[in-house]
């Protein structure tokens, strides 16, 4: 089962009215969004965070210690759980297998295999550094996230909220790419659908400043993109900017809860 979308979560909680009247009932929706952040499985929709942690612990340990070894050749079962915890404490961590293998103390091929097993088990999600040349993307640094933020109550109870929300958006849009340059300019998510490039920056905070927009500007100038999304905590607006290449850029500022409730789809 894939994790529940925010809309599905509200339906299972018998809160369809919030979906129909999202403009009028924003405070109630925001309250439910807080609950949704760690409750994306049907079995834990109504549970406390303590109960969630116990449920997820049982589920993850079954996958790591029973399911994966039944299918794949596993020599170090504890290593699978260690990788999950490293990602949970550093969601969106930048790494390649060479540097990661040195950090963990295991050879690169084994590490690569273990990541593959975790991906095949839907516990880990890998993003590639965006390039129109897919071969280039494969060779660049990668980012790793958990496949659902429901895993955090077990793997990292103290996760920073902004990082949790970034992870939540990554799996909600089924992201495949981010963007980062050698100068460390970075955009969280790059969607590439039907030849259309849509950059998404997640800034889950009260006030958005011009500094928060600079990397979107850089990306859009480089790839001649004219529309971008900036996902916020509360701000809902739209602005146009003139880029250095002379083209105009439209940025939509959308609260994360609203973006997810609208289906997190990009047309």
Examine the secondary-structure arrangement and name the CATH architecture of the largest domain.
Orthogonal Bundle
In whole angstroms, the N-to-C terminal distance is: 25 Å
What's the helix count? 12
Beta-strand percentage?
15-25%
Helix content: 40-55%
Instruction: Give the CATH superfamily of the largest domain.
Output: Winged helix-like DNA-binding domain superfamily/Winged helix DNA-binding domain
**Average pLDDT score:** 91
Strand order of the largest sheet: 1-3-2-4-5-6-7-9-8
Work out the count of structural domains.
Answer: 3
Largest sheet, in brief, is: 9 strands, mixed
Instruction: Please give the CATH class of the largest domain.
Output: Mainly Alpha
The number of strands is 9
Describe this structure in words.
The protein has three domains: 1-36, no CATH class; 37-172, Orthogonal Bundle (Arc Repressor Mutant, subunit A), CATH 1.10.10; 178-261, no CATH class. The chain has 267 residues and is α/β, with parallel strands linked by helices. The radius of gyration is 19 Å and the shape is flat. The protein is 44% helix and 20% strand. The protein has helices at residues 6-12, 16-20, 26-36, 49-71, 77-89, 97-104, 108-120, 134-139, 152-155, 161-172, 214-223, 256-261; strands at 93-95, 124-129, 142-146, 177-180, 186-193, 196-202, 227-232, 237-242, 248-255. It is built from twelve helices and nine strands. β5 (186-193) and β6 (196-202) form a beta hairpin. It has a nine-stranded mixed beta sheet, sandwiched between helices. The model has no long low-confidence stretch (mean pLDDT 91).
């Amino acid at each position: 089962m894939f994790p529940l979308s925010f809309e599905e979560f509200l339906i299972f909680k018998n809160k369809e009215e919030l979906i129909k009247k999202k403009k009028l009932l924003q405070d109630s929706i925001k309250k439910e969004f807080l609950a949704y952040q760690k409750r994306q499985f049907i079995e834990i929709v109504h549970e406390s965070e303590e109960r969630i942690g116990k449920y997820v612990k049982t589920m993850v340990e079954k996958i790591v210690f029973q399911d994966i070894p039944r299918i794949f050749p596993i020599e170090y079962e504890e290593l699978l759980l260690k990788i999950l915890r490293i990602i949970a404490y550093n969601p969106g961590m930048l790494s390649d297998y060479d540097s990661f293998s040195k950090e963990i103390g295991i050879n690169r091929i084994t590490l690569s295999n273990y990541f593959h097993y975790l991906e095949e088990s839907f516990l880990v999600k890998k993003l590639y550094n965006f390039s129109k040349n897919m071969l280039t993307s494969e060779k660049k640094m990668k980012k790793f996230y958990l496949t659902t933020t429901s895993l955090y109550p077990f793997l990292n109870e103290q996760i920073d909220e902004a990082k949790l929300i970034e992870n939540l958006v990554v799996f909600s849009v089924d992201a495949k790419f981010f963007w980062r340059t050698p100068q460390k300019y970075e955009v969280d998510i790059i969607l590439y659908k039907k030849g259309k490039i849509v950059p998404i920056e997640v800034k889950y905070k009260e006030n958005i400043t011009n500094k928060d927009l600079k990397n979107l500007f850089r990306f859009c100038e480089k790839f001649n993109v004219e529309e971008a999304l900036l996902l916020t905590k509360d701000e809902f607006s739209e602005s146009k900017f003139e880029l250095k290449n002379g083209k105009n850029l439209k940025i939509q500022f959308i609260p994360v809860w609203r973006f997810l409730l609208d289906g997190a789809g990009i047309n």
